[in-house]
Design brief:
Blueprint (H helix, E strand, L loop, with lengths): L1 H18 L2 E2 H8 L3 H9 L5 E4 L2 E4 L11 H4 L4 H11 L8 E4 L6 H5 L7 E5 L2 H7 L5 E5 L3 E3 L4 E3 L1 H8 L5 E4 L3 E3 L3 E4 L3 H12 L2 E5 L11 E4 L6 E4 L2 E3 L5
Parallel strand pairs: 4-5, 4-9, 5-6, 9-12, 12-14
Antiparallel strand pairs: 1-3, 2-3, 7-8, 10-11, 11-13, 14-15
Length: 243
């Protein structure tokens, strides 16, 4: 038993030496054990690994150069984010094209796409794309450009040009701050152009956030509140009339 556990720890350390971030589900598949076993292995080796939300990172990365800022956010208000996405999933319809924004909130939305729905999903972040690959009936359009490790997302003219060729039925946007007067804001400026382009093209746009984001104002403004069909939180849909 001990030798198998030691082998798993070595394998996990080797995997992280190359990737630096590993999703819990991927670690379990790599090691051929359950996610609970991986959780126990991580907990038993705090000097080597740190577990945050759905991701495992080397313990030394926590106070250093974290290449994947999403790992820090994965545990934050996770239940509320998941509940908000349950409400948002009601706006997903079969045979349509949807846009799924970057961040940790909308990861949960991907998991809620019905398995029998044939849809096209547009995204520009690795964590969302990774989950979409597990949906057999989803066709994925990944926007390219320059990679930004802090949000595991891409930006650039190539991605914006791809959007011009797409017909988006429903867009699900995320935000780090939602102020009734100032609008929706995010932390990373490179996300603004993508968000604004999508909002201008989509038939309907929904802002999906947990209630902790309400009343906050972040540095990068991307939209006034009246452009969204609704703001969706763990309490459900809230309509914002045009002003």
């Amino acid at each position: 038993m001990a030798s198998r556990k030691t082998s798993r720890i070595i394998q996990l350390a080797d995997a992280l030496s190359g990737r630096r971030v590993l999703h819990l589900r991927d670690a379990a598949a790599l090691l051929g054990v359950s996610e609970m076993t991986v959780r126990r292995d991580v907990a038993d080796n705090p000097g080597q690994f740190t577990f945050l939300g759905g991701h495992i990172v080397p313990a030394g990365e926590m106070d250093g150069d974290m290449p994947y800022e999403l790992a820090r956010e994965a545990d934050s208000h996770a239940a509320a984010k998941r509940e908000a996405c349950i409400h948002a999933a009601q706006h997903i319809r079969p045979d349509e094209t949807i846009f799924i924004d970057c961040g940790t909130t909308l990861e949960y939305l991907v998991d809620l796409i019905p398995e029998n729905y044939s849809i096209t999903a547009v995204c520009y972040s690795l964590n969302v794309a990774d989950r979409l690959t597990r949906k057999p009936n989803v066709r994925i359009v990944m926007l390219g450009g320059v990679y930004h490790p802090a949000s595991a997302s891409f930006s650039g003219n190539s991605g914006l040009e791809t959007l011009d060729s797409l017909g988006i039925n429903v867009a699900f946007l995320s935000a780090a701050g939602v102020d009734p007067g100032r609008g929706a804001t995010c932390v990373h400026f490179h996300e603004v152009a993508v968000k604004q382009k999508v909002i201008s093209l989509a038939r309907e746009s929904h802002l999906v956030v947990d209630l902790s984001k309400i009343g906050k104002l972040k540095p990068a403004f991307f939209a006034p509140m009246n452009v969204f069909r609704s703001v969706i939180t763990e309490d459900g849909d809230t309509l914002f009339p045009a002003v």
